[in-house]
C-alpha cells in the first residue's frame, strides 16, 4: 500500500513518510512499516501474521510503482487524485480515484494479479451502481501476446472511438498502451491496433481525446483453405466447440464439412463469443432450414439472437453490451443478405432454399 495513517490520523504517502513514525493501515487499523530503498518504490507493508482483508500482502513492485506513476500522471494533468481511497458505501478501495468537475468520479484499477471474472464483474458493477466510472489498466502478467484465449480479454472495454479495447501500463517506461479495435476472425490470430503514450511527454487529455485512424484488417488471401485445414485439425483434436457443432450437424443430416461456404466467417468480428463464429453461423443455417420460405424481420432477428445468446462470452467491463449485440445482429443480417441466403421482400425476408442445403463435403 502507498498510503497509511499517522498518529494524527493524517493520510501520508509512503514517498513522504518519516522513518521513525508509527503508521497504521487505513483498512484494518493494524500497524504497518515503511519500506523504502534505493530500488523499491516506497510503500507500507503489514507486519507478519497480519490478517488484513483490505490490503493483500505480496503487493508487487510493479503494482506499487504503477499506482504511484498513474497518480503522478493524473495529478500533473490537473486532476485531483486520491490513492487507495476507501469508498465505504461500496466496501471498495480503488487504486486511484480521480475527481473531475464535469464527469463522474473515475476509479482506476491497475490490475497485476489474477482476478476471476465473477470478482471482476462484482467490482465493476459496484462502481457503476454508485455512479463511478471505472478504468481497468492491466499490468505485466496480462501483457503476453494477445490471443483469443488470453485472460486479458475479460477486461475488454468499449469506447466509441476505440471500439473494443484494452489498456496496459508499462512501469519501466511509465507509459500507457491502448490496444484498440480488437477483432477476431476464426482460424486467424486476433487483429488489433496499438497506440502508446509516455506519461512524461503527454497529459491525460491526449489519451482521452485520442481518435485513431481505423484500418480495416483484410483477411489473408488463403483464408478459406487455411480455414478448412484448421477445421480438419480441430476435429482431429476433438476441440469441444467443433465436436458440439459436428453433433449439431449430424442431428440434421450433415457434417461440418458439408456446411455451405457462407457459414465460414470471412471478415473479422467483435471478439465476444466463447466459440468460433462458425458455430453461430452453423446454427443459423440449421435453424433457417426449418423456417417457411418467407419470414418476418422480427422472426429473423429473434432467431439470430436465440442462437447467439448461449455463445456469448461473459463480459464484466463492457457497459454498452446491448449496442455491441445489436451490431452483431446487424452484421450477420447484412452478411446473409449479401451472400444471397435471404432476400428483402418489403418488411419480410424470403429465404433462398438453394443456400440452405448441405453441400458436398469440402474436406
Ligand atoms: Zn490492513
Could you describe the 3D structure shown?
Residues 59-193 form the Competence protein CoiA nuclease-like domain. InterPro entries: CoiA-like_N (IPR057253), CoiA_nuc (IPR010330), Competence-induced_CoiA (IPR021176). Residues 17-55 form the Competence protein CoiA-like N-terminal domain. This is Competence protein. It comes from Lactiplantibacillus pentosus (Lactobacillus pentosus). The structure is a single chain. The protein is α+β, with helices and mostly antiparallel strands and 363 residues long. The chain folds into three domains: 1-59, no CATH class; 61-215, 3-Layer(aba) Sandwich (Trna Endonuclease, Chain: A, domain 1), CATH 3.40.1350.10; 223-356, no CATH class. Helix content is 28%, strand content 21%. It has eight helices and 16 strands. The chain has helices at residues 61-76, 117-129, 204-208, 223-236, 240-250, 277-288, 297-308, 321-338; strands at 3-5, 11-13, 23-24, 31-35, 43-46, 80-83, 96-99, 106-111, 133-138, 157-159, 163-170, 175-183, 191-198, 294-296, 342-345, 348-351. The strands form five sheets. It has a four-stranded mixed β-sheet, sandwiched between helices. The chain has a four-stranded antiparallel β-sheet with strand order 10-11-12-13, with no helix packed on it. β3 (23-24) and β4 (31-35) form a beta hairpin. α6 crosses α7. The radius of gyration is 25 Å and the shape is elongated. The model has no long low-confidence stretch (mean pLDDT 92). Bound molecules: zinc ion (ZN). Zinc ion is lined by residues 25, 27-28, 30, 46, 52, 54-55.
Amino acid at each position: 500500500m502507498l498510503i497509511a495513517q499517522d498518529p494524527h490520523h493524517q493520510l501520508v504517502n509512503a514517498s513522504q513518510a518519516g522513518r521513525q513514525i508509527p503508521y497504521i493501515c487505513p483498512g484494518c487499523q493494524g500497524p504497518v512499516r515503511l519500506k523504502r530503498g534505493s530500488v523499491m518504490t516506497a510503500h507500507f507493508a503489514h507486519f507478519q501474521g497480519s490478517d488484513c482483508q483490505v490490503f493483500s500482502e505480496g503487493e508487487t513492485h510493479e503494482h506499487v510503482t504503477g499506482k504511484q506513476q498513474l497518480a503522478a500522471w493524473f495529478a500533473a494533468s490537473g486532476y485531483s487524485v486520491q490513492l487507495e481511497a476507501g469508498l465505504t458505501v461500496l466496501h471498495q478501495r480503488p487504486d486511484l480515484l480521480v475527481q473531475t468537475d464535469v464527469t463522474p468520479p473515475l476509479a482506476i484499477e491497475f490490475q497485476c494479479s489474477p482476478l476471476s471474472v465473477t470478482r471482476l464483474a462484482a467490482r465493476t458493477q459496484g462502481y457503476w451502481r454508485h455512479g463511478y466510472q471505472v478504468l481497468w489498466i492491466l499490468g505485466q502478467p496480462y501483457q503476453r501476446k494477445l490471443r483469443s484465449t488470453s485472460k486479458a480479454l475479460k477486461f475488454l472495454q468499449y469506447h466509441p472511438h476505440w471500439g473494443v479495447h484494452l489498456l496496459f501500463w508499462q512501469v519501466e517506461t511509465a507509459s500507457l498502451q491502448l490496444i484498440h479495435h480488437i477483432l477476431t476472425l476464426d482460424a486467424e490470430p486476433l487483429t488489433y491496433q496499438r497506440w502508446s503514450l509516455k506519461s512524461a511527454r503527454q497529459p491525460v487529455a491526449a489519451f482521452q481525446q485520442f481518435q485513431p485512424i481505423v484500418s480495416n484488417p483484410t483477411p489473408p488471401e488463403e483464408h478459406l483453405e487455411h480455414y478448412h485445414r484448421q477445421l480438419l485439425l480441430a476435429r482431429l483434436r476433438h476441440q469441444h466447440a467443433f465436436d458440439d457443432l459436428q453433433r449439431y450437424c449430424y442431428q440434421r443430416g450433415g457434417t461440418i464439412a458439408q456446411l455451405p461456404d457462407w457459414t465460414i466467417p470471412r471478415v473479422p468480428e467483435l471478439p465476444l463469443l466463447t466459440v468460433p463464429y462458425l458455430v453461430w453461423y452453423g446454427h443459423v443455417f440449421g435453424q433457417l432450414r426449418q423456417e417457411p420460405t418467407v419470414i418476418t424481420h422480427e422472426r429473423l432477428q429473434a432467431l439470430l439472437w436465440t442462437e447467439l445468446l448461449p455463445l456469448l462470452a461473459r463480459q464484466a467491463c463492457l457497459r454498452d453490451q446491448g449496442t455491441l449485440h445489436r451490431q452483431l445482429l446487424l452484421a450477420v443480417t447484412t452478411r446473409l443478405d449479401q451472400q444471397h441466403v435471404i432476400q428483402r421482400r418489403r418488411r419480410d425476408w424470403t429465404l433462398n432454399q438453394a443456400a440452405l442445403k448441405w453441400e458436398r463435403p469440402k474436406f
